[in-house]
Amino acid sequence: MTIELIPLPAFSDNYIWLLHDGRQAVVVDPGDAQPVLDALAARPGLSLQSIWLTHHHHDHTGGVQALRQATSAQVAGPARESIPQPAQPLQAGDCLTALGLRFEVLEVPGHTAGHLAFFCPDAGGQALLFCGDTLFSGGCGRLFEGTPAQMLGSLDRLAALPADTRVCCAHEYTLSNLRFAAAIEPGNAALAEHRARCEDLRNAGRPTLPSLIGLERAINPFLRSREPAVIQALTRLDPALSPDDEVAVFARLRQWKNEF
Fold first, then answer.
1. Is 115 among the residues known to form the active site?
2. Is 58 a catalytic residue?
3. Among the four residues 50, 52, 56, 145, which has the most C-beta atoms within 10 Å?
4. For 92-148, how does the pLDDT look when each residue is reduced to its tens digit (9 = 90+)?
5. How many Å apart are CA 178 and CA 181, to the nearest integer?
């Protein structure tokens, strides 16, 4: 059985992730129903089995009710957030099964208080992560409801996943993130190479995602906040910053990105 992973563009820069085996499908974070309905219509015989939500923001949940009415798909999402009901409440340690695959539910607060991620250790020979707005290629989500300590812990949890894990982020923020990353680590050769590759992809109208955990560990400043080069860039910006305070360093990094 072949599993296909498809990023469906929505709004100006969202991706709704569609995972299917030719007969049944799962979608993650459908902020808009129409791209999903169009994808199903283009694949006769494909039915929507499940809708999974990483967090409550409307650009991730806005299409749920229309999809539920059109397909009778079951909805699952964070137990500690207000999401379209009825929905299966999920928390850390829970598992979801679809398309013969088993996904672990991870709690990754920071962007929102109850944000979840879904991790499958083996989806067609390679691990797979749906991480919503917690981890982006070259970046991470803004801290709307959580703390820097929570987000640092969440990113540590994701960075510890296998290096070949496909990272399915929910936004095409890669180029802007990599511009910031290059300001932090101008001498990072892996970053420069990835940035050039992503520019080529976008110029060709193609997505930069999914990324890989191993790649993100090499190029993403928010996974590299303990690296000497990142700390040095931040202490040059803010000489009063304590380089030994990991949370303070991460918080200053996130603040710099907010202002960049």
1. no
2. no
3. 52
4. 999 999 999 999 999 999 999 999 999 999 998 899 999 999 999 999 999 999 999
5. 5
Q: What is the DSSP letter of 213?
A: H
Tens of pLDDT, residue by residue over 144-195, are: 999 999 999 999 999 999 999 999 999 999 999 999 999 999 999 999 999 9
Amino acid at 247: V
Alpha helices in 19-57 (DSSP H): 33-41
To the query of whether residue 56 is one of the catalytic residues in this protein, the response is no
Question: Of 21, 29, 32, 133, which is the active-site residue?
Answer: 133
Structure tokens belonging to residue 145: 């409801």
Q: Is the confidence at residue 1, as pLDDT, over 70? A: no
Q: Which of 20, 56, 60, 194 is catalytic?
A: 60
Confidence of residue 21 (pLDDT cuts 50, 70, 90): very high
- d(CA 111, CA 187) in angstroms, rounded, equals 29
- 55, 56, 115, 194: the active-site residue: 55
Residue 164 known to be catalytic: no
Look up the pTM and report it. 0.97
Tell me whether residue 194 is one of the annotated catalytic residues: no
The residue written with tokens 């999401």 in the block is 83
CATH C-level class of 4-259: alpha beta
Residue 200 C-beta-side C-alpha neighbours within 13 Å: 6
pLDDT in tens, 192-212: 999 999 999 999 999 999 999
Q: What is the C-alpha separation between 89 and 216, in angstroms, rounded? A: 30
**How many Å apart are CA 227 and CA 89, to the nearest integer?**
37
Domain ranges in the chain? 4-259
